[in-house]
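Hi all, long-time lurker, first post. I run a small reading group and we've been trying to get comfortable going from sequence to structure in the token notation. Rather than ask abstract questions, I figured I'd post a concrete chain and ask someone more experienced to write out its structure so we can walk through it together at our next meeting. Sequence below, copied exactly:
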Amino acid sequence: MFAQSTQAGAIYARPEAPQKTPRALEYELLARVTQALTVAWAARKQNYSGLMTALDDNLRLWATLAADVAEPTNGLPAPLRAQLFYLYEFSVQHSRAVRDDTASVEVLIDINTAVMRGLRGDRGTP
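-- Answer (accepted) --
Happy to help. Here is the structure in token form:
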């Protein structure tokens, strides 16, 4: 255990390790969750629990984003904050429909992808 702790300390203490910006972290998390949704949707018949886990992870991420934009100290413009909060609410409702087998995850993937484009600063369409 001590050896693992020492190794972890050495890794985290490296000054050359790049620090990610909050925007880069949000992008990375959205990319991971979106990839997991894509994979889970393709394998839903063989691994239904994997789909449920991917949906839960997506909702957990969106709940965190919603809590952040609801904070009065959040620096984003109010209209953008409202739009992001709406996307959270939509994701909750749509995820319920996916669970009920009345919808697909495609729109959730599209939403995440659009937000990722915004985080990259890409205002155009793909």
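A couple of things your group might point at:
Helices lie at 2-12, 22-42, 48-70, 78-99, 106-120.
Residues 21-120 form one domain.
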